[in-house]
Design goal:
Structural class: mainly alpha
Largest sheet: none
Number of strands: 0
Strand content: under 5%
Shape: globular
Number of helices: 17
Length: 455
């Protein structure tokens, strides 16, 4: 167990890498909480409809995240081996594929919004509100993808502060414009749920403007000229695609699985649907730890792997597991305490929805250490390019175990939503054991920048 033990200098180094992204995500989630509260004043149907649209959007975003995570592993490893040209080619690959994916999701969202929303709910008011929201917010998909790609690449080379500053400005812009457009304050038109969507679109265009400005101003080794966007060698393109494809598939299947679980829990009533949305917004404040540890793992594991410092990468990986476990206990306790805020923050939703939100949060708090360890193992596998096992461990487990189990209890029993939720979450104990075994085999300890002949 020595390799997992707490190491103060290492913990400080990890915190310095993880904290900027955590703060960035924390501010974003906090503003989303404010947005959610403002939308809540439009009624339970408005909250549920925005939650449903976000489930659709998250499928696209997680696909981009999967691609960006794989590409950023190569950017980090090529950065470690000081191969600038290949860093740029990896970045170009990331931009081109992301643009195609988000264009497709935008087109689908604009073409068949009712069909999309009807997957998540049969409530006509939820579908009607969701169609209005999706019709506008779909225009934010492409700029969001480009911004995410730039920020992922910056963090892969150790730049954490620029993404933080850009995102803070964007989310604050979103919050202010929500206040203006939803309620018609300061002389702006009262647009309701469409106003919330418009605020999101404007904020995302502000964010991409700032990201592109920073990319132009500073000398990042991965940045490229727009005229060279198609200049990608077959070697780099193939490497990125081979590693990214299973990771993208994993993220799509996992996010679609989460959307399906949302659908299952929603069968227990509109109060549960609203409560789930409220709980997610609060618990997301604590899940920012995952983003921070993801960035830290990329820098502390992928970079030494690219520099062929394999033992150092292994040492860092196991220390990250130990540190993430300690943090998860602290975050779990704080999450449990946060459930007391539900009646205060969401006084405008029904009592049934409030009670559901409290129970969702408390179950997640008790399970938080399991989520964190499993996710950290996933980050380690990904950092070494072991995409096959990340696919099996994450979305493979989701669709072979969690979805069938929860689906059976949803449609073949009358158990209440809390017991249904607990049953689904307890399956993560199996996942944790599988994840640890995969990491302990150390097949992920690989330098991806080497050609097969060099290996």
């Amino acid at each position: 167990m020595k390799k997992f033990l707490f190491d103060l200098p290492f913990a400080k180094k990890t915190t310095l890498i993880a904290l900027p992204l955590m703060v960035q995500q924390l501010i974003s989630v906090a503003v989303n909480l404010v947005d959610n509260l403002m939308i809540g004043y439009l009624g339970d149907a408005a909250i549920a409809s925005v939650a449903a649209v976000n489930k659709y959007y998250l499928i696209a975003q997680f696909a981009i995240n999967g691609l960006a995570a794989a590409a950023s592993v190569f950017i980090a490893q090529y950065h470690g081996s000081n191969e600038k040209d290949k860093m740029q080619e990896s970045f170009r690959t990331l931009l081109l594929i992301s643009f195609c994916i988000m264009s497709l999701f935008t087109l689908i969202g604009k073409s068949i919004p009712s069909m999309i929303l009807s997957y998540f709910s049969s409530d006509l008011s939820v579908i009607e509100n969701g169609v209005k929201y999706l019709g506008v917010v779909a225009f934010s998909f492409i700029p969001t993808a480009v911004s995410l790609n730039i920020f992922f690449s910056m963090r892969a080379v150790g730049e954490m502060h620029i993404p933080l500053r850009c995102s803070v400005i964007a989310v604050l812009t979103n919050a202010i414009l929500n206040y203006c457009f939803i309620f018609g304050n300061f002389g702006f038109p009262r647009l309701g749920i469409e106003g919330a969507a418009l605020a999101t679109v404007i904020a995302r265009f502000v964010e991409i403007t700032l990201a592109l400005f920073a990319l132009k101003r500073y000398d990042f080794p991965f940045k490229t000229k727009i005229t060279e966007i198609f200049h990608i060698s077959k070697e780099v393109f193939t490497k990125v695609i081979v590693k990214a494809a299973p990771l993208m598939l994993n993220e799509i299947l996992w996010s679609f699985g989460m959307a399906t679980l949302f659908k299952f829990y929603s069968t227990r009533g509109s109060d549960v649907m609203s409560g789930n949305s409220a709980a997610s917004t609060i618990s997301d404040l604590f899940f920012t730890l995952f983003g921070g540890m993801s960035a830290a793992t990329t820098v502390l594991v992928s970079t030494p792997l690219g520099a062929n410092q394999l033992d150092h990468a292994k040492e860092n990986a196991y220390k990250l597991v130990g540190y993430s476990f300690m943090l998860s206990i602290l975050f779990g306790v704080l999450m449990f305490a946060s459930s007391l805020l539900v009646p205060i923050l969401y006084s405008h939703i029904t009592l049934g929805a409030q009670h559901a939100a409290i129970r969702f949060i408390r179950v997640q708090a008790c399970m938080f250490w399991i989520y964190m360890l499993t996710t950290e193992f996933y980050f380690i596998l990904r950092a070494g390019g072991d995409m096959k096992h990340t696919l099996l461990m994450d979305s493979g487990f989701m669709w072979s175990v969690i979805i069938p189990v929860v689906g059976i209890f949803t449609y073949f029993t009358n158990i209440n939503f809390l017991l249904l939720y607990v049953i689904g979450q307890l399956t993560d104990l199996i996942k944790l054991v599988v994840a640890y075994r995969l990491v302990s085999k150390e097949h992920w300890v690989v330098n991806l920048t080497l050609n097969p002949a060099e290996e």
